[in-house]
Amino acid sequence: MLTRHGWGAVLLATLGTVVGRLFGILELFVFGTGLLTLVIVSVLWVHSQRISLSVSRRVVPDVLRVGDAGRVELAIVNTARFGTPSLTLWEPVAGLGGATLRLAPLHRNETATANYRLPATRRGTMVFGPLTVERRDPFGLCMQRRIVAGTHEVVVLPAHLYLELPAGMGGSGPLGDQLRVRSLGRTGTEFHALREYVDGDDLRQIHWRASARGDTLKVRQVEPEGLRRATVALDTTAGEYTPEGFERAVSAAAGAVHAACSAGLHLRLLIGAGTDLRTTTNAAAMLALASCTMVDPAPGQSAGMVFSAPNGDGLGLIIVVTGSTQSAVAAVARRSLSPTDVLVVVACSALPTAERGFVVDATSDTSLAPSWASLTGQAARSS
Length: 383
Description:
The protein is α/β, with parallel strands linked by helices. The chain contains 8 helices and 18 strands.
């Protein structure tokens, strides 16, 4: 393939040859034919050897979050029978232009490495490739271009703070206090030890087999039921957010997911009315959050979100990430609360002047961390 300079040389050579022949200007004729010969020789030289490269990619680190600066590492092997001249590599990156790499000559079966930065500017799937290699002649008149590697995808997770939640019945702050109050009077189901019977013990907890082997009654001692499960619900109603507010909401939901998983809680993730991930993991939840978008739901669609969980599962925490405490999703969550549930509303667009219950302020990029810390008594970390 001729380059722009190559086509210019062909045009100039043709013009010089024709004018030199018509007007008998020998020098101009020789110049034109010589330049045309140079173009032909360049084409033959560039295509005299087929480029054959084997390329493998690796993205470092394996997991990218918005704001991270990753790196794509390339391992390039010359699989041709002969060495290569200097080559140019080009890899387009969706939304970021592309990366140009210069590759020194390679001997047969020689391996070279190269890398380029991959800034994670937005969540979701980032596609880069295909990787193209280009060989040019020394005069820049002709080039050979081949695709040596296909496209590659990497998922960029939402930016989020490393939030903390009280585990079991521990923790401080208003949330921890409320969980301890809720656990009072609940006998629990997890066996801890046997002890002697005292007046007032529940007769249903007497261990008759152990009592028969001694002179006193033995009672099963169980651990009180603490915080065992968490539901994180992300409202995706477009009318609740600005675009910036929705990104804050996704980041807040990601932080809540991380907090629930770090506390060892049974996690459930709701995204709008269409995604319900039960018994999910941190990795699966983050992938779902990375690709979620705002929607315009049909009338009554948000009412289809189900928050309640069976009693006897321990105490539950429902974290609703929405635009305001007065949103339709927050109202559904309040109506769905069971006696074992505690509701936390994360408001990303507007805060009420007065509101009962637990509310976290996420109306700005800097308000989430101190507001969460005042609720749980535990500071958030950025990384």
